[in-house]
């Protein structure tokens, strides 16, 4: 089984990487982009029997900084 963890900065947290991407897109002629939020996807190959609760614990302890980031888990 696989799990995909999507990690994004929480609303209200400054996203300098997203702002840099937005500016770069404008420089390349893509003027329709008003805001960019950048995040990360972490894909985990899990052993049989690994539960979503275990993946949640991984997120809380290591994969996401829950003070400034939110996450969602997708089991595949």
TrEMBL record:
UniProt keyword Cytoplasm present: yes
Entry's EC annotation: 6.3.5.3
Subcellular location as annotated: Cytoplasm
Catalytic activity: N(2)-formyl-N(1)-(5-phospho-beta-D-ribosyl)glycinamide + L-glutamine + ATP + H2O = 2-formamido-N(1)-(5-O-phospho-beta-D-ribosyl)acetamidine + L-glutamate + ADP + phosphate + H(+)
Pathway: Purine metabolism; IMP biosynthesis via de novo pathway; 5-amino-1-(5-phospho-D-ribosyl)imidazole from N(2)-formyl-N(1)-(5-phospho-D-ribosyl)glycinamide: step 1/2
Main location: cytoplasm
Alphabetically ordered keywords of this record: ATP-binding, Cytoplasm, Ligase, Nucleotide-binding, Purine biosynthesis
GO cellular component: cytoplasm
GO biological process, one term: 'de novo' IMP biosynthetic process
Coiled-coil region(s): none
GO MF annotations, alphabetized: ATP binding; phosphoribosylformylglycinamidine synthase activity
Database matches in Gene3D superfamilies: Phosphoribosylformylglycinamidine synthase subunit PurS
The family this protein is said to belong to: Belongs to the PurS family.
HAMAP family noted in UniProt: PurS
Quaternary structure and interacting proteins, as annotated: Part of the FGAM synthase complex composed of 1 PurL, 1 PurQ and 2 PurS subunits.
Function: Part of the phosphoribosylformylglycinamidine synthase complex involved in the purines biosynthetic pathway. Catalyzes the ATP-dependent conversion of formylglycinamide ribonucleotide (FGAR) and glutamine to yield formylglycinamidine ribonucleotide (FGAM) and glutamate. The FGAM synthase complex is composed of three subunits. PurQ produces an ammonia molecule by converting glutamine to glutamate. PurL transfers the ammonia molecule to FGAR to form FGAM in an ATP-dependent manner.
Protein's name in the database: Phosphoribosylformylglycinamidine synthase subunit PurS
């Amino acid at each position: 089984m696989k799990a995909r963890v999507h990690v994004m900065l929480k609303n209200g947290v400054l996203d300098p990487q997203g702002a840099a991407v937005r500016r770069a897109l404008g420089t390349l002629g893509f003027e329709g982009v008003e805001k960019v939020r950048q995040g990360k996807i972490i894909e985990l190959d899990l052993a049989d029997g690994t539960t979503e609760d275990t993946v949640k614990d991984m997120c809380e302890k290591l994969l996401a900084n829950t003070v400034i980031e939110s996450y969602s888990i997708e089991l595949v």
